[in-house]
């Protein structure tokens, strides 16, 4: 059986407010298999951001277990958890988060500027390689202000891939794009399991974008509902 990149087993997350406790995730179980694509949909307040924060190893659950790259995160020190996080996951956001003064290639190399290691020459070659995967190597020298929204989001996706993470999480990646561009960018994301082998998890409000993933999970008040999918444990497969 293939080991999931990350696996959640009956994970619950609660927030204590002044008067009440909100259950944002309620016994959520899901497996993200290597080189798979998953869409997560749900109304505002259903628990999507909370689920992403658990999948990104940014939030530890109140109960349940999380296993990432074969390790139970509950057993890890803060520094081991932080190392595991930086190995595991690349993230893409709705509003791109590019540095407007950096070229596309330099934006993709940001992990190197922040100390991911190796020589500048190798980092630049890697940046060009991932820009090529996204079909925009010819834009390597352009500034973000000289690109379309779809091109900027491709740069942001390339940056998330720079360190070759086994898991790429995209939070409303098409929210700032028109309909056609949204579908092109989502197709580029969903191609990544086949081209670079990363598993892709996309949170989206857009049903057309969600439909293009191999699997779709909807969240209702913290409960996961599986569509076109096999529940964890059934036939030994993931979601
Ligand atoms: N820091 C917090 N303190 C208290 N309650 C919180 C906190 N963060 C989230 N919640 C509550 O937890 C539930 C899930 O919130 P979450 O942000 O995960 O939803 P979401 O689906 O991402 O929403 P949106 O689409 O609006 O971003 C909601 O009821 C929300 O009010």
Walk me through what this model shows.
- The chain has 239 residues and is of the alpha/beta class.
- The protein has one domain: Rossmann fold.
- The chain is built from eight helices and ten strands.
- The strands form two sheets. It has a six-stranded mixed sheet with strand order 6-7-8-3-9-10, sandwiched between helices.
- Helix 5 packs across helix 6 and helix 6 packs parallel to helix 7 (179-195).
- The longest helix has 17 residues, at 179-195.
- It is globular and about 50 Å long.
- It starts with 5 loop residues before the first strand and ends in a 12-residue tail after the last strand.
- The model is unreliable at 233-239 (pLDDT under 50).
- Adenosine-5'-triphosphate is lined by residues 15, 17, 22, 24, 42, 44-50.
Largest sheet: 6 strands, mixed
Helix content: 25-40%
The whole-angstrom Rg is 18 Å
Q: Find the structural class using helix and strand composition.
A: alpha/beta
CATH topology: Rossmann fold
Low-confidence stretches: 233-239
CATH class: Alpha Beta
Helical stretch tally: 8
Can you tell me the overall shape?
A: globular
CATH superfamily: P-loop containing nucleotide triphosphate hydrolases
InterPro entries: AAA+_ATPase, ABC_transporter-like_ATP-bd, ABC_transporter-like_CS, ABC_transpr_LolD-like, MacB-like_ATP-bd, P-loop_NTPase
Pfam families: ABC_tran (PF00005)
Organism: Janibacter limosus
Protein name: ABC transporter ATP-binding protein
């Amino acid at each position: 059986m293939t080991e999931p990149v990350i696996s959640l087993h009956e994970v619950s997350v609660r927030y204590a407010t002044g008067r009440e406790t909100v259950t944002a995730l309620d016994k959520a179980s899901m497996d993200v298999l290597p080189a798979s694509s998953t869409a997560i949909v749900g109304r505002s307040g259903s628990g999507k951001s909370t689920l992403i924060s658990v999948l990104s190893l940014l939030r530890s659950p109140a109960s349940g277990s999380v296993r990432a790259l074969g390790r139970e995160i509950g057993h890890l020190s803060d520094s081991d958890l932080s190392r595991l996080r930086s190995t595991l996951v690349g993230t893409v956001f709705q509003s791109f988060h590019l540095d407007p003064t950096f070229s596309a290639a330099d934006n993709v190399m940001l992990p190197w500027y922040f100390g991911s290691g190796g020589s500048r020459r190798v980092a630049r070659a890697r940046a060009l390689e991932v820009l090529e995967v996204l079909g925009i190597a010819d834009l390597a020298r352009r500034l973000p202000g000289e690109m379309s929204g779809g091109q900027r989001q491709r740069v942001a996706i390339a940056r998330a891939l720079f360190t070759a993470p086994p898991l790429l999480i995209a939070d409303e990646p098409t929210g700032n794009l028109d309909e056609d561009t949204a579908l092109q960018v989502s197709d580029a994301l969903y191609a990544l399991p086949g081209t670079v082998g990363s598993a892709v998890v996309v949170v989206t409000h857009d049903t057309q974008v969600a439909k293009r993933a191999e699997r779709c999970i909807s969240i209702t008040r913290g409960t996961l509902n599986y569509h076109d999918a096999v529940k964890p444990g059934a036939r030994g497969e993931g979601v």
